[in-house]
């Protein structure tokens, strides 16, 4: 495989993975180092005839800590250890929802040719700069030809695993973004029927009713980091202005869609008065506990929020919480995925191959997804473990008239413009200036 020299477009793009400015740059984590000094190009590995003693320790980085998917990743690692007891696995988590801190750590380690064995990474456009910089290995044969992966995977995840035309990563889940979760008791007490809210702007009146008739706030939200507000904005954009506009905006056509971009910002601004007062200091998981405790009626989030409900005793789907498609977006599945890429200079190439093969298996996806609140990218994973909510998400996915990739979660937008979008959102949540944010969003793609 070819390499691109430093300073070319590839590394420039990679430099945009974290960007400066915005609260994304506020990492407090330290750079992890691998335990081995061996530097190998992952391109020359083979699993033929290897003995278990050949395995170097595997280092895997992710941001699934606490309520944000920890039970799911623990179940995944348990399954892997059962299958490969001889491979030492070193988990090296970097907390921070939406990858707030991990992106920074990974960019630095990859640029220093000191990557972990693999890490939690959105596939698709997010990995494009890594591919352009020649940092990822082609795993079409070593991984994707195993476990019937090429036949069993849905087309979308398979395509997202090939950001530059070759397989470089293994998607493990599909999350949905255009959800409106709600506390059932609160909305019932308020006399609000979430299914009857037909467009995002109508949610304002519903939240007013909640606040008039209950002690709860209309909407749980976190503005501590920009990504949940960018998420909310993209859900509003999709629901109010439709998927063609959404997709054009994801392609960077901000100026051409001025009215929609600004209109969606204004709607988010209209929601603000119904947010929990501490929105600036709580994380997305802390905001979600307000739905669980009945302190908030609604929550717009990816269905990782449902993974958290599932781990909560006495908070049952259908009785205590439920979900509708975000108003105006019924029939559309706005999605993102998590995947595990194979970097070159891999500290443990053989162990990494095994780990990635495992992530692509039925067993791994059956263990991980029910706890994560996501559905599997393989089509042959038995549904029994998934429970009624995720089974409904699977049906919604299957019956959806369109599946649109997430802007905020890196599938549709490359790291550099995405950093610009997050910076614009960080400014928005401090001054709530629609015109200024629109200009900054436009700049993000220039
Ligand atoms: C990831 C999810 C994660 C969520 C919140 C998303 O970008 O895809 O796996 O649960 O961020 O941190």
Automatic annotation (TrEMBL):
It comes from the Archaea. Pfam families: SBP_bac_8 (PF13416). PROSITE patterns: PROKAR_LIPOPROTEIN. Residues 13-53 are annotated as: Disordered. One of its GO terms (biological process) is maltose transport. One of its GO terms (molecular function) is maltose binding. Residues 24-53 have a biased composition (Low complexity). One of its GO terms (cellular component) is ATP-binding cassette (ABC) transporter complex, substrate-binding subunit-containing. InterPro entries: SBP. Keywords: Signal, Transport. Belongs to the bacterial solute-binding protein 1 family. This is Extracellular solute-binding protein.
């Amino acid at each position: 495989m070819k390499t691109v020299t430093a300073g070319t477009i590839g590394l420039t793009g990679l430099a945009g993975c974290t960007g400066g400015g915005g609260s994304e740059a506020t990492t407090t984590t330290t750079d992890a180092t691998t335990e081995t000094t061996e530097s190998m190009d992952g391109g020359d590995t083979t699993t033929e005839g290897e003995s278990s003693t050949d395995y170097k320790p595997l280092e895997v980085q992710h941001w699934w800590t606490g309520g944000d998917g920890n039970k799911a990743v623990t179940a995944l690692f348990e399954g892997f250890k059962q299958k490969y007891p001889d491979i030492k696995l070193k988990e090296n988590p970097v907390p921070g929802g939406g990858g707030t801190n991990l992106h920074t750590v990974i960019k630095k380690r990859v640029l220093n040719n000191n990557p972990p064995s693999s890490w939690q990474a959105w596939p698709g456009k997010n990995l494009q700069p890594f591919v352009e910089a020649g940092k990822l290995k082609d795993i079409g044969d070593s991984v994707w030809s195993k476990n019937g992966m090429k036949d069993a995977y849905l087309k979308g995840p398979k395509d997202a695993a090939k950001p530059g035309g070759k397989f470089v990563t293994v998607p493990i889940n599909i999350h949905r973004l255009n959800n409106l979760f709600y506390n059932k008791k609160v909305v019932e007490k308020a006399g609000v029927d979430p299914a009857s809210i037909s467009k995002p702007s109508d949610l304002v009146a519903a939240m007013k009713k909640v606040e008039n008739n209950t002690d709860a706030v209309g909407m749980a939200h976190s503005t501590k980091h920009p990504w949940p507000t960018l998420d909310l904005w993209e859900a509003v954009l999709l629901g109010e202005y439709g998927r063609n506009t959404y997709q054009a905006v994801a392609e960077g056509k901000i100026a051409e869609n001025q009215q929609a971009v600004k209109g969606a910002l204004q709607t988010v601004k209209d929601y603000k008065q119904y947010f929990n007062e501490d929105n600036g200091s709580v994380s997305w998981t802390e905001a979600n506990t307000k739905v669980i405790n009945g302190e908030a009626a609604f929550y717009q989030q990816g269905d990782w929020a449902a993974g958290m409900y599932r781990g909560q005793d006495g908070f049952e789907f259908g009785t205590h919480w439920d979900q509708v498609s975000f108003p105006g977006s019924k029939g559309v599945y706005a999605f993102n995925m998590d995947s595990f890429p194979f970097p070159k200079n891999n500290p443990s190439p053989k162990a990494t191959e095994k780990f990635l093969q495992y992530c692509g298996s039925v067993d791994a996806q059956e263990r991980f997804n029910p706890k994560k609140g996501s559905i599997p990218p393989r089509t042959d994973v038995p549904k029994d473990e998934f429970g009624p909510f995720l089974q409904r998400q699977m049906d919604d996915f299957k019956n959806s008239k369109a599946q649109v990739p997430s802007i905020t979660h890196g599938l549709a937008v490359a790291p550099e413009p995405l950093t610009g979008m997050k910076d614009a959102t960080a400014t928005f949540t401090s001054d709530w200036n629609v015109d200024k944010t629109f200009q900054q969003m436009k700049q993000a793609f220039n």
